[in-house]
């Protein structure tokens, strides 16, 4: 290979086709068919969104919630982590956690759930995704009529849980509580979590 060819190869590396979105953007079903797509890629407004590596706090609070939710959930609910939900043709985000209806579970090969199957969506805010987690994704979940949404922030090194419920009159979330040390809710089912336990994981 000539020096000129090497320089050309270095300055114009081959890129996967999914780097270039199709006219009109991607659709939700594309995520199951794009080869070599990075794990946990989301689709928001027709654009692919790539997830940064998780910080330890993020992983620990998700672990704490998974255990607590699975212990408390009635038998007609299931808890899923890091699976996507189709909200519309160009919307397929991946909440950190979801509580879904048990009837939505079909087999162990499924890669997504439908919005109608989701009872609760949970986002743990990361620095790189804070605008999406605080604004766009809750808006999308509300528009898709997901009844409950929790946003978890790290404040002064501790988890703070913001609990929202859908107002059917406005089709938007209203905050029903801000929980610093202890989370106790009655919907979508009775649940109590000592948030300080995250320090013991």
UniProtKB/TrEMBL annotation:
Keyword Hydrolase in record: yes
Keywords: Endonuclease, Hydrolase, Nuclease
SUPFAM superfamilies associated with the record: Restriction endonuclease-like
One annotated GO molecular function: endonuclease activity
Domain Putative restriction endonuclease, first and last residues per copy: 30-188
Pfam annotation, one family: Uma2
Keyword Cell inner membrane appears in the UniProt entry: no
The protein's name in its UniProt record: Uma2 family endonuclease
Record organism: Nonomuraea helvata
